[in-house]
Design goal:
Layout lengths: L6 H14 L1 H9 L1 H7 L36 H11 L7
Helix pairs in contact: 1-2, 2-3
Length: 92
């Protein structure tokens, strides 16, 4: 990857390969840090674990932000309110 490629370009290229190459997908699932670094993503050394989750069509995922990111008056409540007020795109 070139230094000039954007985050979005690298992510799109990585996702395309994951979707089209099942061996690469399995490698990514088992070694995400190494694959991300090999494809031009910088992972801070302070990040000890990377969890890769493959979505399912019938499942909603909620990621609870690290507590430090939620500081500020009512920040956590605002995040949850925004999440709970969203409706799935299919109108269910």
């Amino acid at each position: 990857m070139t230094e000039k490629s954007t985050f979005e370009e690298r992510a799109a290229k990585l996702l395309k390969r994951i979707r089209t190459d099942m061996n690469f997908k399995q490698e990514f699932l088992s070694r995400p840090r190494q694959i991300l670094e090999q494809t031009g993503f910088e992972i801070p050394k302070s990040i000890q674990h990377i969890k890769v989750v493959e979505e399912a069509a019938d499942t909603m995922y909620v990621v609870i932000p690290y507590e430090r990111r939620m500081r500020g008056p009512g920040r956590a409540n605002k995040l949850w309110e925004a999440l709970l007020s969203r409706r799935p795109s299919n109108g269910e």
